[in-house]
Specification:
The protein is about 85% helix and about 0% strand. It is built from three helices and no strands.
Length: about 70
Amino acid sequence: MKLFLSIFFSGLLGILVFFGPIGIYILCAIIVGVIFRSFVLLNDLHNEVVPVGSRDSVKEVYEKYLKEKEERS
C-alpha cells in the first residue's frame, strides 16, 4: 500500500512539472519542505538517542593523545 501511494504521489509531482514555472516552483517547495522536515526529525532522533551529558569516549581518547603529545615535545 505504501508503495502504491509513493508511486501515485511521485506521478502527481511529475505532472506538476508540466504546469510550467508555477508547477516547478510548487515541486521544489515540496521537495525542500520534505528535506527540511527530515533534518528536523533526524535531529530530534539524535537528541533522543544521545543524551546531552553523555560521555564521549572518542573525544576523551583524542584529548589524552594530545596531552601525551605535548608532554613528549
